[in-house]
Specification:
Rossmann fold, 41% helix, globular, single chain, 15 helices, 372 residues
C-alpha cells in the first residue's frame, strides 16, 4: 500500500518537525507534501530522508518565505490542489491545513493533530491584537476570514478517518472543535541525545519560535524585574527585533542554534522556562531528559508532563510578577536531576514509534483484512 505524508510547512526544525521525522522514518512514505518549503537543504534532507517535498502553488508567491502566514486565506485552495489520489494511505501532520488535503473514496487518512487551528479556536483576539487587526474595518475583515477558515477547518475534519492527538489537552480540543474522538500518542523525545548532566550553571534557558503565542514577552519582562538573574534565549522568528528591543542586559539571544548547542544549554541551565499554553511541550521534556527542571505556566500540555515540586514548578497567572515569584520559589527548592530525567524517559521516542506503528497497522491493515 502506497503512503503519502502531508505536513503543513517546512520552515524551521521545531517540535512538529521532530514528529514528522519520526513518522517518515517509521512508515517510509513514498512522497512528502506541504504548503511551503523554506527549510535549509541539510535540515530538510534529514527529516525527509532525501525525499524532498512537493509543495503547493503558494511556494511561488513573491516573498512567501517572509509572509507565508499572511497567505492563510489561500491555504484551503492550496492544500486542496495537492494531488494525493495515487496513494492508498494519507498521513497528515497538521496544526493548520494539512488535514484538509482532498481524499478520494477508498483512501485511509490518519491525521496526527498537533492542535486545531489556534487563531480560529480560542486565540482569535490574541492574533487580531498582535497583527494590528483589532479595530475598525481591519478587524471586521480579519474576523470574516477567520470564520471562513474555521468553517473550512471543521468541514475538512470529516475527511479524516482516524485522529491522533499529541496530548490529552489537544484531544479535548479536537472533541470540542470537531466532535471527534482521538487516540493520544505523545510526541517523541530523544532521551539518548538529551543526556543527563547534573552540574548546572547560573542561567535560565528557553528555546522556541519567536511567535505570538509563545509569550516570550512575558519571560523577558520578568527578567527586567530580576536584574541579578541571567536568561538565555534560543530561537528566531518574526518577533525577533521586537523582543531584542525590550530585553535588558541580563538577557542574551543565541539565535537558532545547532542540535549540539541546544543540548549543551539544556543540560547546564538552572531551569527551562515556558510561559505559553503549549499543546504538548517537547522542549520541556528535552530539558527534563537532561535532568533540568522546568518552570512553566500551569495550563495546557505541560500539566501532563511536569510533576509539580518534583520535576519542576508551575505559575498560574500570565503575568511577570507570577513568573518572578515562581523563579524565587524555585530557588528555595532542591531537585534531583536523576528523578527529573526518569520522568522524561516515559516519553522516549521508542514509546512513540511503538504506539504509532501499532495504530498504523491496526487502522490500515488489520481492519482492512478483517473486511476482506
Amino acid at each position: 500500500m502506497k503512503v503519502a505524508f502531508v505536513h503543513d510547512w517546512f520552515t524551521i526544525p521545531a517540535g512538529a518537525e521532530k514528529v514528522a521525522a519520526e513518522i517518515i522514518d517509521l512508515i517510509q512514505p513514498e512522497r512528502v507534501y506541504s504548503l511551503f518549503n523554506f527549510m535549509p537543504f541539510g535540515e530538510l534532507n534529514r527529516i525527509t530522508q532525501g525525499r524532498g517535498v512537493k509543495t503547493s502553488f503558494l511556494q511561488q508567491v513573491p516573498a512567501a518565505s517572509e509572509h507565508y502566514r499572511h497567505l492563510a486565506p489561500l491555504y484551503p485552495k492550496a492544500i486542496s490542489k495537492l494531488d494525493v489520489s495515487e496513494f492508498d494511505i494519507i498521513i497528515s501532520s497538521s496544526w493548520m491545513a494539512a488535514k484538509g488535503v482532498n481524499k478520494r473514496e477508498g483512501q485511509i487518512h490518519i491525521s496526527y493533530c498537533h492542535t486545531p487551528m489556534r487563531f480560529a479556536w480560542g486565540l482569535q483576539e490574541t492574533y487580531l491584537k498582535k497583527y494590528g487587526y483589532n479595530h475598525g474595518i481591519k478587524k471586521w475583515l480579519a474576523k470574516l476570514m477567520i470564520n471562513r477558515l474555521k468553517n473550512w477547518d471543521e468541514q475538512t475534519a470529516e475527511g479524516v478517518d482516524h485522529f491522533v492527538a499529541n496530548s490529552n489537552f489537544v484531544s479535548q480540543r479536537i472533541d470540542k472543535a470537531y466532535g471527534r474522538q482521538s487516540t493520544v500518542i505523545y510526541p517523541p523525545i530523544q532521551c539518548e541525545r538529551f543526556a543527563l548532566h547534573e552540574d548546572k550553571a547560573d542561567f535560565y534557558f528557553t528555546a522556541s519560535r519567536f511567535v505570538d503565542y509563545k509569550n516570550l514577552e512575558l519571560i523577558i519582562d520578568t527578567f527586567s524585574r530580576l536584574p541579578n538573574h541571567k536568561l538565555v534565549i534560543a530561537g528566531q522568528g518574526p518577533l525577533e527585533k521586537h523582543l531584542k528591543r525590550m530585553a535588558t542586559p541580563n538577557v542574551s539571544f543565541l539565535g537558532w542554534v545547532s542540535d549540539e548547542s541546544l543540548v549543551y544549554h539544556m543540560q547546564r541551565a538552572k531551569a527551562f522556562l515556558n510561559a505559553s499554553i503549549e499543546d504538548f511541550g517537547i522542549a520541556g521534556l528535552e530539558a527534563q531528559s537532561c535532568g533540568t527542571p522546568v518552570i512553566a505556566l500551569g495550563k495546557g500540555g505541560y500539566t501532563e508532563t511536569v510533576v509539580d515540586q518534583e520535576t519542576g514548578i508551575f505559575f498560574e497567572r500570565e503575568h511577570p510578577e507570577a513568573l518572578a515569584d515562581a523563579i524565587l520559589r524555585f530557588e528555595k527548592l532542591e531537585f534531583d536531576p536523576e528523578v527529573v530525567r526518569q520522568n522524561a524517559l516515559r516519553y522516549d521516542k521508542e514509546s512513540f514509534r511503538e504506539q504509532f506503528l501499532n495504530l498504523f497497522l491496526d487502522k490500515c491493515f488489520i481492519s482492512e483484512s478483517s473486511l476482506a
